[in-house]
Amino acid sequence: MNRIAMSSRSNRFRRYSRLALAGIATVTLAACAPSFKADVSRFQAQLPAPQGQTFAVVPEDPQLAGGLEFSLYADMVAAEMAQLGYTRAANPENANLLVRFDYTIDNGRERIRTQPGVGGFGAFGPWGPWGGFGGWRGGWGYGFADPFFGGFGGPNVRSYTIFTSGIDLLIDNTSTGERVFEGRAESVSRSNRLQNIVPNLVDAIFTDFPGNNGEAVRITIREDGNEVRAQR
After folding, report:
1. Can you tell me the distance from the alpha carbon of 25 to that of 9, in angstroms, rounded to the nearest whole number?
2. CB-based contacts of 40: which residues, under 8 Å, 6+ apart?
3. In angstroms, what CA-CA distances link 90 with 57, 214, 215?
4. Element (H or E) spanning 28, and its range?
5. Facing residues of 111 across strands?
6. Sequential pLDDT tens for the chain (232 residues)
7. φ and ψ at 80, to 5 degrees?
8. DSSP summary character for residue 224
9. N or C: more exposed end of the chain, with fewer CB within 10 A?
10. Rounded-to-10 torsion of CA 36, 66, 171, 179
């Protein structure tokens, strides 16, 4: 092979390698983009449209009454109700709607994830999408899979704890005593910090509020604050 042909092939190799690495970086960044997912179920019956009705947020669990943590979350719920057009009452006795709120988190459970061992050349190993020297299999000539290059490293086993957290939102009409709304939002995460999780759960349960009677949806809250709703 003459020197010009070798130089041209070398340039193509470097160019395709840069494109390949850029593609991996793009996919990796997209996969790592943080988002919050919650499973939401909602039931409603004759929830009055906002026409000046007042509301009060109270704990479903009486033991939470007067607590600073509950007050923080209650203010978040109240802000959502106010944004819908309802007015917060000075006290529960004067409210047209009684919003009962509760939050929970379990003790966690262990999850084990096993991934195949990575070949000697990482993402360019023969068992990944890339051939032994960085070529896409079936693509340009430098991509090939040889078991010799993938023989290093065993399976990667990781163990971590996951927690299930949830909120319940119940709304009663104080004049009739009837329940007009029931909703629950639940999520699974590796964090047990409710002060980080509850705001997202509140956001999820109020997405397209009050929703359809009997619906179960998956709400995804992206980092940019936009919500994505899909039937579960």
Report:
1. 24
2. 183, 184, 185, 186, 204, 205, 207, 211, 216, 217, 218, 219
3. 11, 32, 33
4. helix 3-32
5. 160
6. 544 444 444 554 444 444 444 444 444 434 444 688 999 999 998 888 899 899 999 999 999 999 999 999 999 999 999 999 999 999 999 999 999 999 998 887 787 777 776 554 444 444 444 444 443 333 444 344 444 444 455 677 778 788 899 999 999 999 999 999 999 999 998 878 888 999 999 999 999 999 999 999 999 988 765 656 555 5
7. -70, -40
8. T
9. N
10. 130
Count of alpha carbons within 13 angstroms of residue 69, beta-carbon side: 11
Number of residues assigned to the chain: 232
Task: Work out the angle at residue 30's Cα, subtended by the Cα atoms of residues 158 and 188, and round it to the nearest 5 degrees.
Answer: 50
Helix (H) or strand (E) holding 218: strand 215-222
Are the beta carbons of 153 and 127 closer than 8 angstroms? Answer: no
Burial class of residue 57 in the structure, from the number of CB atoms within 10 Å of its CB (0-12 exposed, 13-18 middle, 19+ buried) = buried
CATH says 36-116+155-231 is which class? alpha beta
Give the SS3 label for residue 182: strand
Amino acid at 148: F
Element (H, E) at 81: helix 68-84
Q: Scanning the structure block, which residue is given the tokens 């020197």? A: 3
